[in-house]
Design brief:
single chain; mainly alpha; Fumarase C, Chain B, domain 1; Ribonucleotide Reductase Protein R1, domain 1; two-stranded antiparallel ribbon
Length: about 475
Amino acid sequence: MVPPRVEQDSLGPRDVPDDAYWGIQTLRARENFPVSGLRSSPHLVRAYAWLKLACVRTNVALGAVDIPKGHAIEQAAEEVAAGKLSDQFVVDVFQAGAGTSFHMNVNEVLANRALEILGRPRGEYAFVSPNDLVNQGQSTNDTYPSAAQVAVLLALRDLRVSLGVLAASLRHKATEFAHHPKAGRTHLKDAMPVTLGAEFGAYASALEHVLEALAPVEHALAEIPLGGSAVGSGVNSRPGFRAGSVAEYARLTGLSLRPARDPFEAMQSRWPLGAASAWLRTLSLELIRIANDLRLLASGPATALDEIRLPEIQPGSSIMPAKVNPSAAECLDMIAFHVVGADAATALAVQAGQLEINVMTPIAAYEVLFSAEILTNYLPTFAHTCVDGITANAPQLEEYLVGSAALATVLTPRFGYLKVAELLHEAERLHRPIRELLVERGLLTADEVESLLGRAALLKLAEPVG
């Protein structure tokens, strides 16, 4: 067994496993915060690696870091950004305030990998220091929120694609169901007709509109506090570091990053993370509404609406044979419920900033990134396993449509609201279609009834206003 190496920080020496790239400060964080077993998002690890790469390149160019050591740190950061050493980021997401623990985890991994590249033993921090060299001109206070915002931008970029897949599936169903007129419902009571296609088209439009609202959120996230150092003043950084590091960070990530207009405000306020969380909540509320509509439309089959049939993806009961549930929509609901709850945690974290820093940033970053991840993972699955396979139950749609008393609304221009209401009450009392009463009372001919309440007329009624 390889003996541990001894590392020392400001609190004294400790033994660190010799095969670990993380060091003494990460060790303390692991001991102090054995909370959840949850680890930071790969997006955050990648974003931090790119940030450190941008900073070391800028520091080398400014003469703040010598070239051989700088190049070794560069190589280490490039490796981490490429996904290597991912098992070395071991700090729990519930940790010390501001993200210092995770930040030092990053600094120590990069320092020890750089030492290895330079042919030095891990832990020789007098040669490559996690604090003095890897962290040259930086602080947790400016780097963690910057990396978090970049990580969220990366996650939202993936979510855009997934959301587009679901919206496209719904739009396809809108076209497929365009000629299926059906009874509309308001207050869950019979209302004027729509088409099944119009309902699905509205679902697609809702997601498309939410997607349109993402651009200003992304714009806000792209303004980062990097270069502000401890409080926004840029203490211990070289002139030109702020502009240079942000520009290089933008180049590495392919994002339109820009330095904060007010570096002090950008240190204090985490409102861009709050805006991202609020957008995820808005999206989730729409997804819940759509999923619940699909569950309602597919309810039954014998005792409820049964207007559509969802794909049968798995047995739904351990006791009732052949029962199949709307499992995909139920899963989507649970995911979206989690996102709504995560937004509450994020909101509390965002408002918890005090004076020059918000120490609750790690939980806000985690909640936003995890919410984006689970939505990204599931929305295409929901599109493929549920939406793409939905079929219309045409006979049931027809039965509800022709039996809907709300269709008599088209008679009010001719007979007036009160007269039509009287006819409807009579039809309900006699359990007879209003169409028959209209002809029997001599109010309309059979041809006139067909022209007003026939299938062709109903389909026309269901069309949107031009």
